[in-house]
Amino acid sequence: MTKQKNRGYNKTQKKHNRSNKKYNKQSPSQGGRKNSKSQGKPAITNVGRGKQKTVAAQVSCSGLTDEGKGIVQWEGKQLEVAHLMPGEKAEVVISSKGRYVNAELKRVITPSKDRVKPACTYYYECGGCQLQHMNAQAQMRFKQETIDALMQPFGKPEAILTMDDPYDYRNKSHMSFGLNKERQIIGGLYAQNTHQIISMEQCLIHDPKADEIGETIKDLMKSFKMQPYNEDTGRGFLRHVLVKVGKVSGEIMVVLVVASSVFKGKNNFVKALRNAHPEITTILMNVNNRNTSMVLGDQEKVLFGKGTITDTLCGLKFDISAKSFYQINPIQTEKLYAKAIEMAQLTGKETVVDAYCGIGTIGLVASQKAGKVIGVELNKDAVGDAIRNSKRNGVKNARFYQGDAGEFMVQMAGRGEKADVVIMDPPRSGSDEAFLSSVVKLKPKRVVYVSCNPVTQARDMKYLVKNGYEVEGIQPVDMFPQTVHVECISQLVLKND
Length: 497
Ligand code: SAH
Description:
The protein has helices spanning 3-7, 123-126, 136-150, 208-223, 266-276, 330-344, 361-367, 380-392, 405-414, 433-442, 454-466; strands spanning 45-46, 53-64, 70-74, 77-81, 89-97, 100-110, 172-179, 185-190, 197-199, 238-245, 252-258, 280-287, 299-304, 309-313, 316-320, 351-355, 372-377, 398-402, 421-424, 446-451, 469-477, 487-494. It is of the alpha+beta class. α4 (208-223) packs across α5 and α9 (405-414) packs parallel to α10. The structure holds S-adenosyl-L-homocysteine. The site of S-adenosyl-L-homocysteine has 18 residues, from α7 and β17.
């Protein structure tokens, strides 16, 4: 497949191949001469009215927040400015109402040498990515410094494992559909913190196939007179489209998330979609008739194919359902899992708990080097996938259970069961006391903690360190290039054992 050609850019210089008419928010301009009149103190012009006060000011950026925003001082206050980089001087617009103060970048006066033109046309409007205005080195430095600071009480982290070609990596993409002011159907992503759809043909971190399918669906909606769902009125039919791509297998799942189970013209729609994209291997309909910001509802129906896709990761084959969690960047996941399993120091005899195991990926890869693996996961579809995946790969020494990982561990500890190694990979909220206190009772020799939120990870590590563990290794991995998110693995070892 000629990905780069299709998307109108090459590997070194990525550019959009079209202009987006809806894109009207000005990107902050770079360069420009210093305003000599306002040198030394912020140049403040009151351009506001009513109770909200809006002023323009010149500021200097001294560092970055955890969210990648520039830190500036203004009238004795510390403010955060999105898209501003350390060392830069800039003109910002500050709006205040009561105690609420918001600063937006208007113009960069002295750009950082690490500032680049974002590859994505929608960058300043979308908010899905937060670091595209930084070059790769600056992104890497930001993530490394974030992890170094959070993990400072535990030791010095290793250098972050970065991605060579940090675009097109997402194997799962959501798109939403709506009407613009001219009542034409648009499709794209929500603007940050809103449900306002930004009409876009492509997202540079999505798999290109997902975007092509999204475009086709938008066209088909017109010819099938299918209305997008309107959250305010509750009218309309198509809410979202979820596309999952097996990066190795090439299998593609399309989930049409709809507001009602009555799908008029269903068979013809599916036929037309398959005609346009013969590479689609399964199509599902998911009914979400609730007033919720959750994408998927409970009711699911397979319209074509087997209802799952299969992909290969770390040499094993995995079945993936619509609702199951599967790491979204498979290239980096292989590095992540290899490191996590290395940190588990398996010799072939150990009992390994794979907690928060999703579809069983880490546990099944680890099972090749372990005595036995016990996986626990809350989502029942994911557990079903994990059980199927162990059979499919001929793994005999792994068992998977559905339930809350904390409760499961409490029961394991209560029964006096043994675990040599616990690999845990909880959601962003981290683990809980029930889980962690049971780990302390079970006394595994090693705990390998994989996390997509190092803040909660550091909190949980503190608990384990207070209760008999010491940190032997910390490895950040860049699973989500262009965004502020960073994954981190830590290796904890039981003291005096
Ligand atoms: N280790 C897997 C999944 C990690 S994502 C992988 O690498 O793919 C975190 C998983 O934790 C999700 O599958 C989610 O469904 C599950 N989860 C969330 N809360 C849980 C809980 N209380 N107990 C068990 N699993 C939980």
